[in-house]
Amino acid sequence: MHAMQYELTLPARYDMGIIRDRVARRGHLLDDWDGLGLKAYLLRERGLRGSPVNQYAPFYLWNTVDGMNAFLWGGGFQGVSDDFGRPSARQWTGLAYEEGDGSHARFAVRRRQPVPVGEPLADAVEDAVGEAGRLAAQDGALLAAAAVDTSRWELVHFSLWEQDAPPGAEGDLFEVLHLSAPGRDSLPRGRRW
Question: Domains in the chain, please, with CATH?
Fold first, then answer.
């Protein structure tokens, strides 16, 4: 499993209806993308739910590097680049994925944090794996994942929720506009090593 996200931070007075419209028209295009576990089309609006910015920030969990590369180099990502300029696409290696009992995603929480310095790496990633399990076990959780970027030694925790304010989930809160999940059932559960 590989995680990926790019963020488009938009002007304070930007009409976020443009993004909602874009997702309504184009979101289905990845509903059957080969190699994609899921793509959550995420939005946060300045002044709502504690957001300091207007931002469109899709988050991906890939089953295969081939699928991710086909998206990046084969045309899917080009539409974003054409319309907004080429954003940096952050990538993390998967550590854990767990399913929850939720039925549909309304909100997402993403938390990035440094891998603690001075702590054995095995302990840090075991904690991240445990956090994915803890989040997925909460009422209303659809799923939770943990991943790491070893170039920055940064952990990312990602979770999808049915409710607006998930208890115990810390991080940036996003509205989910659409969920493409052609390979969600194939995402490997549990620890990834």
Answer: 2-184 (3.30.70.100)
